Amino acid sequence: MAGYFEEMGWRELDEGEQPDHLLHMARFLMDFGMYEDNFTGEWPRLPPPAAKEAVKNLNEIVIDNDTTNCPICLKAFNSGDKATKMPCNHVFHPACILTWLDKTNSCPFCRYELPTDNEGYEAFKKEKKRAVQRKEDIDTLHNSMFS
Amino acid sequence: MANIAAKRIKREFKEVMKSEEVAGGAIKLELVDNNWTELQGAIAGPPDTPYEGGTFLLEIKVPETYPFNPPKIRFMTKIWHPNVSSVTGAICLDILKDQWAAALTLRTVLLSIQALLSAAEPNDPQDAVVAKQYRDNLCLFNLTARHWTNVYAGGPSVIADFNQKVQRLLDMGVEEHQARVALSTYDWELERATEQLFS
Ligand SMILES: [Zn+2]
Ligand SMILES: [Zn+2]
After folding, report:
1. Which of A13, A36, B37, B130 has the greatest number of CB atoms lying within 10 Å of its CB?
2. Cβ atoms B79, B86 nearer than 8 A
3. Do B111 and B84 touch, CB atoms closer than 8 A?
4. Between residues 46 and 65 of chain A, which touch chain B (CB distance below 8 Å)?
5. What does the CA dihedral A82, A86, A89, A94 come to, rounded to 10 degrees?
6. CA of residue B61 to ligand 1 center, whole Å
7. How far apart are CA B154 and CA A1, in angstroms?
């Protein structure tokens, strides 16, 4: 069985390392039930911009014969237009999607999330995932005991 | 106004006008100024709710940074609902705040507000007084919401008992809306409402 600190994803600070206040805040908010319960907790404001690296690596495509609109400006694509494709396959004008991802990290159409450069938010996401995993573990244990 | 915002609103406006919701009378959208920065929306109160039969007007302000920021929307028609301020008409709805996404449109937003009238979120209230009544006395909440729909939104249900109580306060010189708010707040107990108004 993993140790308590390992299980919680905690470790001692390295020599000269400063504590991560954002991470502490994320934990504090979750521990004290600022969210309805730990498993559906939401980040309390618009999530941060997409990571610069992730934005740089998005696929550039050329529209061939597409009949759809860019979901941001609602203008129809023309054949030969350059477009940016998100990992979820949604396609936008490069200028449209870059402006959006500079504000927040998810696809404006389906909310697929790109990574961010915000440590606090990434810690929050990790905590949330861990909480879901813990709940699944408890459910599995419960089912194996009572079924 | 920034070019993209005005252009997009124009495209949306066309889309809304062609939509089946407009054809069916569920939602309406009108221009208020020629700059495409302010519009007026209207939603029909959903069936099987206390808002049924009412028409609720919404003020829609489009920021220059639209669609990267949400439109600012509030109820102009007074409404008794846990997620709408009974004073200012401000709406507590996640997609108008931190859950906004640039692919949402005025049409989807109006439909979401209409859906909010069918399914209130009392745990995320905009109006604490209304939310408390919703939780503690759903029956009285429904009657009160129906009464407000009748008086302010043209709904069909006349609730004679409530009208009489409002009239009693009017006879004492209280302003009508103030009287209605006090009575609604104090679960239609005339004495407590009077006490609060004259204290
Ligand atoms: Zn576009
Ligand atoms: Zn997507």
Report:
1. B130
2. yes
3. no
4. 46
5. -20
6. 21
7. 66
Range of the domain at B171: 128-198
Answer yes or no: is A32 within a domain: no
Instruction: Read off the tokens for B74.
Output: 């509030």
Q: What is the dihedral of CA B106, B112, B113, B114, to 10 degrees?
A: 110
- Give chain A positions within 8 Å (CB) of B105: 74
Within a domain: B123? no
Is residue B91 located within the same domain as residue B143?
no
CB within 8 Å of A8: residues ≥ 6 apart: none
What would the pLDDT profile of B8-24 be if each residue is shown by its tens digit? 999 999 989 999 988 88
Contact by Cβ (8 Å): B53, B156: yes
Beta carbons of A109 and B101 less than 8 Å apart: yes
pTM: 0.81
Indicate whether A125 belongs to any domain: yes
The residue among B118, B143, B161 that closes a domain is B118
Domain presence at residue B60: yes
Give the contacts of A144 (CB within 8 A, at least 6 positions apart): none
Amino acid symbol at B101:
A
Contacts of A106 in chain B (CB under 8 A): 101
Question: With an 8 Å Cβ cutoff, are A96 and B101 in contact?
Answer: no
